[in-house]
Amino acid sequence: MDMIALGAAGVVAALCAVVVRQKTPEIAVVLVAAACVLLLWNTLPLLETIRDVMEELADLADISPTVLRPMLQTVGLALVTKLAASLCRDAGEGGVASFVEVAGAAAAVLVSLPLLKMVLQLVMGLL
User: Fold this and answer.
1) Is 93 helix (H, G, I), strand (E, B) or coil?
2) Pfam families from the xrefs (predicted)?
3) 3-state DSSP percent of the chain in helix, strand and coil, to 5
4) Segments in the chain below pLDDT 70
5) Alpha-carbon span 63 to 115, nearest angstrom
6) Is the sign of the CA dihedral 84, 85, 88, 89 positive or negative?
7) Residue 106: its pLDDT value, please?
8) pTM, entire model
9) Among the four 31, 76, 101, 116, which has the fewest Cβ within 10 Å?
10) What is the sign of the dihedral through the CA atoms of 5, 11, 86 and 20?
11) 9: number of CA atoms within 13 Å, CB side?
């Protein structure tokens, strides 16, 4: 599915959610969540292509996969966190959305710790 189709599907889902929300807000949240899952599912090939290109660039620049992996994981965590927090806000749960964002930030820090360790080892080796 190309970007125009994904954008159109997103707009149609949003319009349907607006109409449904007037009568049954609970169903609107489920509709939006289903639309997000469908759109994300159709976006996965794009994300896989980005990952493959990043791996090729890392090979060309002679960057270790242990350096590239935390970066890609952090980007993935950011995307999932943003999506989950937006769904929580759409459901009227701002507090839960805030917690999801804090948890996502903590997970990103945890994933990036090996990269920080490698940087520190490199700096210590230069001293």
Assistant:
1) coil
2) SpoIIIAC (PF06686)
3) 90, 0, 10
4) 1
5) 12
6) negative
7) 95
8) 0.71
9) 116
10) negative
11) 18
Whole-number Å distance between alpha carbons of 72 and 50? 10
pLDDT of residue 127: 81
Gap between the Cα atoms of 81 and 103, Å rounded = 8
Query: Which residues, in sequence order, are CB contacts of 58 under 8 Å at separation 6+?
Result: 64, 65, 67, 68
The whole-angstrom separation of Cα 89 and Cα 49 is 30
Q: What is the largest CA-CA distance in the chain?
A: 67
What per-residue confidence (pLDDT) applies to 1?
Answer: 60
Structure tokens at 63: 């960057």
Taking a C-beta distance cutoff of 8 angstroms, is the pair 108, 74 a contact?
A: yes
Tokens 């990269």 -> residue: 115
With contact defined as beta carbons under 8 Å apart, do 32 and 40 qualify? no
Report the alpha-carbon distance of residue 66 to residue 55 in Å, rounded. Answer: 11
